[in-house]
C-alpha cells in the first residue's frame, strides 16, 4: 500500500512539473510596429495599428494561441526614414519583439533593409505599405497584392471603357525606375500609352508641378501611385485648376483619407484599387468577423477603414504563424512558418507564401466614389 501511495505521489508531482513546464512555455508574443502615428500618413498608420490590436485583443480574451498572448508595441516615426531605422533599432533592443508589422513608406523600408536590422536580428516584417515595387527579401512578407497587380487591374479596367491615353503621377523614390517599367508593361498589355509622367518628391505632398503638366497636356485618365497625402493634394489642386481627366489611384492613396480632406465634388468619380475586402460590408467571412469583433469591442480611436482591415488581416497571419509553431514560437520559427504558409484562408481572403515568394495575395478590386460621396464597388 505504501509503495502504491509513493508511486501515486510521484505521478502527481510529475504531472505538476509537466503542467508547470507548459505554463512556463506560455509567453507573450511581442509584435513591434514603427509607423507614422503622426504626420502626413498618421491616419493610415494608426488605423493599421488599430486593426492589429482589434484582433490581438480578441485572441487574448480567449487565452491567446497555444497559451501565448499578444502585445502590440508601437513607435512613431512621423514618416521619416531615419526615425524608422532609429526606432526599429531601439525597439529590437528594448522590447524584444518576435515579429515586426505594419510599416509604411518606400524609403523607410529601404533604409531599414539597408541598415541590415532584419537580417542581423533574424526577424520577419509582416505587412507593409509602399508606393514602389520591391524585390523579394527573405525577411519581408506582405499580406496584400503587389503594386504590379494593382496597375494591371487599373489599366485593364480603363481599356474596357475605351480609355487608352494615360498620365502617371508617382513618387520619385528609390523604386521609381522599377515602377515606371511596370506601368509601361501594364499599359502595353492593355494597349494603352502613358503620354506624360510627373513625379513628386518622396516623403512630401508637393503636387503643383505635376498638376501644371497635366493641365497643359490633358490625358483621358491619370494613374496616381502616391501616398494618401500626396494623392489628396494632387486631386484638390488638379480639380481646382479645372482638370477633368478621370483619376485612378492605387490602394496606398487611402480612400478614407481622401474623403476626409476633399469635397464630394472633388472626389466624384475617383476610383481606387483596393487590396482587401470592403471593411464596411459583411458579404465576406472576414468582413463579417471584422465587424462582429468591432461591435463587441470598445470604439477604436480612429474611423473604420481599409487600412484597419488590412492590419486585422496582418494580425491573423501573425497569429497563424504562431499557432503553427506550437509551444515554443521564435523569431526564426516565425519566418519558417510563414515560408510554409502556402494557402491560409483568413476568412474568404487567401494569403500564401513560399520561399522566395513573399507577396501573399492577388486580390484587387475597384472602389469608385459616387456623386453623393459614397464608396461603391
UniProtKB/TrEMBL annotation:
Keywords: Signal
InterPro entries for this protein: Leu-bd, Peripla_BP_I
Keyword Signal attached: yes
Leucine-binding protein domain mapped to chain residues: 29-361
Signal peptide boundaries: 1-26
Family to which the UniProt record says this protein belongs: Belongs to the leucine-binding protein family.
Protein name: ABC transporter substrate-binding protein
Lineage of origin: Bacteria, Pseudomonadati, Pseudomonadota, Betaproteobacteria, Burkholderiales
Amino acid at each position: 500500500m505504501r509503495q502504491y501511495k509513493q508511486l501515486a505521489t510521484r505521478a502527481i508531482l510529475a504531472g505538476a512539473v509537466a503542467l508547470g513546464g507548459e505554463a512556463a512555455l506560455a509567453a507573450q508574443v511581442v509584435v513591434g510596429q514603427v509607423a507614422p502615428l503622426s504626420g502626413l500618413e498618421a491616419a493610415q498608420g494608426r488605423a493599421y495599428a488599430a486593426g492589429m490590436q482589434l484582433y490581438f485583443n480578441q485572441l487574448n480574451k480567449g487565452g491567446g494561441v497555444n497559451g501565448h498572448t499578444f502585445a502590440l508595441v508601437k513607435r512613431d516615426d512621423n514618416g521619416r526614414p531615419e526615425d524608422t531605422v532609429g526606432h526599429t533599432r531601439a525597439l529590437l533592443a528594448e522590447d524584444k519583439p518576435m515579429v515586426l508589422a505594419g510599416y509604411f513608406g518606400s524609403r523607410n523600408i529601404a533604409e531599414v533593409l539597408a541598415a541590415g536590422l532584419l537580417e542581423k536580428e533574424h526577424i520577419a516584417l509582416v505587412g507593409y505599405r509602399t508606393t514602389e515595387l520591391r524585390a523579394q527579401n527573405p525577411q519581408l512578407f506582405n499580406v496584400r497584392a503587389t503594386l504590379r497587380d494593382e496597375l494591371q487591374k487599373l489599366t485593364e479596367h480603363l481599356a474596357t471603357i475605351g480609355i487608352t491615353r494615360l498620365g502617371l503621377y508617382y513618387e520619385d523614390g528609390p523604386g521609381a525606375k522599377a515602377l515606371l517599367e511596370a506601368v509601361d508593361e501594364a499599359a502595353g498589355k492593355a494597349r494603352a500609352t502613358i503620354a506624360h509622367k510627373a513625379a513628386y518628391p518622396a516623403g512630401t505632398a508637393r503636387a503643383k508641378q505635376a498638376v501644371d503638366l497635366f493641365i497643359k497636356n490633358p490625358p483621358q485618365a491619370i494613374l496616381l501611385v502616391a501616398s494618401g497625402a500626396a494623392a489628396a493634394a494632387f486631386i484638390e489642386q488638379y480639380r481646382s485648376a479645372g482638370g477633368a481627366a478621370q483619376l485612378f489611384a492605387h490602394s496606398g492613396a487611402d480612400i478614407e483619407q481622401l474623403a476626409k480632406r476633399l469635397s464630394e465634388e472633388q472626389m466624384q468619380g475617383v476610383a481606387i484599387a483596393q487590396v482587401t475586402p470592403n471593411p464596411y460590408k459583411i458579404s465576406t467571412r472576414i468582413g463579417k468577423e471584422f465587424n462582429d469583433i468591432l461591435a463587441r469591442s470598445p470604439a477604436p480611436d480612429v474611423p473604420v477603414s481599409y487600412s484597419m482591415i488590412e492590419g486585422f488581416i496582418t494580425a491573423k497571419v501573425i497569429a497563424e504563424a504562431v499557432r503553427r509553431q506550437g509551444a515554443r514560437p521564435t523569431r526564426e520559427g516565425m519566418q519558417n512558418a510563414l515560408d510554409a504558409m502556402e494557402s491560409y484562408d483568413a476568412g474568404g481572403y487567401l494569403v500564401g507564401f513560399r520561399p522566395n515568394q513573399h507577396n501573399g495575395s492577388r486580390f484587387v478590386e475597384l472602389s469608385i466614389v459616387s456623386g453623393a460621396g459614397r464608396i461603391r464597388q
